Amino acid sequence: MLNFILNLIYPKKCIICQSILPVDNNQITCPNCKKYIQYIKEDCNNEFFNKKNVFITRNYGVILYNEYIKKVIHKYKYGKKEHYGKVLAEIMNDKITEVVKKHDIDVIIPIPIHKNRFKTRGYNQSEILAKILSKKIDVKLDRKYIWRAKDTKPQNNLSIMMRKNNLKKAFKLVDKQNVSYKKVLLIDDIYTTGSTLESCAEVLSAHGREVYSLCLAVAVK
Ligand SMILES: [Zn+2]
Q1: Distances (CA, A) of 96 to 47, 72, 93, 100, 142
Q2: Ligand 1 geometric centre to CA of 131 (Å)
Q3: What spacing in Å lies between the alpha carbon of 21 and ligand 1's midpoint?
Q4: What is the whole-number distance in angstroms between the Cα of residue 36 and the centre of ligand 1?
């Protein structure tokens, strides 16, 4: 009954075209937009994606970063659409379950954003995803272990070299004597060049952690 009323007030909408979905529909898109959610079956270290990092053992992604997903993630990040996190985490659920089991992951860590950006955006989009997923699949979440020391420029218009320089010493670890993580899974929204993940992973691996990554959407090179 409560669900029925809630559905009348806040009808569930297709995440891509915003058309209203039937009350009993448990999909995240309308039938027409379903084709734009393109799931990735393998990991992303293969020839097709070629997502290889020095400090990351294996990179995983859930769906392809196409023009439709780009718009959805953009709204999620910059459009004060914090509630999109719930639907997007739903998309990631099966893949993260598989990755955590396969690699015996101890802890999931969202890519941190700088406190200045947190202030303007109001939330860290990757942290929301990681928080929901951690509860759902019952794996430890650590949001404080790694933090962003440098307020880096937006990466979008920078070359790969510039991205690397931009990210130098961007991340720091909190010195916790009692932390004994062996295998860490980094969570982020988009994988494009992978330089942010790499920079994060470098710090973690310098402290003896084995690093994996899982991103919601992966751009084909
Ligand atoms: Zn739709």
Answers
A1: 22, 20, 6, 6, 16
A2: 27
A3: 9
A4: 9
Residue range(s) defining the domain that contains residue 91: 38-218
Tens of pLDDT, residues 134-188 = 999 999 999 999 999 888 777 777 787 777 777 778 899 887 777 889 999 999 9
Q: How close is the Cα of 14 to the center of ligand 1, in Å?
A: 5
What is the 35 CA–ligand 1 centroid distance (Å)? 10
Shared-domain flag, residues 11 and 64: no
Q: Are residues 101 and 177 in the same domain?
A: yes
The reply to whether 13 and 104 lie within a common domain is no
What amino acid is encoded at 103 in this protein? H
CA of 38 to the centre of ligand 1 (A): 14
Q: What is the pLDDT of residues 109-124, one digit of tens each?
A: 999 999 998 998 899 9
Q: For residue 33, how far is its CA from the centre of ligand 1 (angstroms)?
A: 4
Tell me the CA–centroid distance for residue 95 and ligand 1, in Å: 23
What type of residue is 96? I
Question: Does 15 lie in the same domain as 114?
Answer: no
Helices (H) and strands (E) in the chain, counts: 7, 7
DSSP, collapsed to helix, strand or coil, labels residue 204 as helix
Q: How far is CA 187 from CA 23, 31, 170, 191, 214, in A?
A: 31, 29, 17, 10, 5
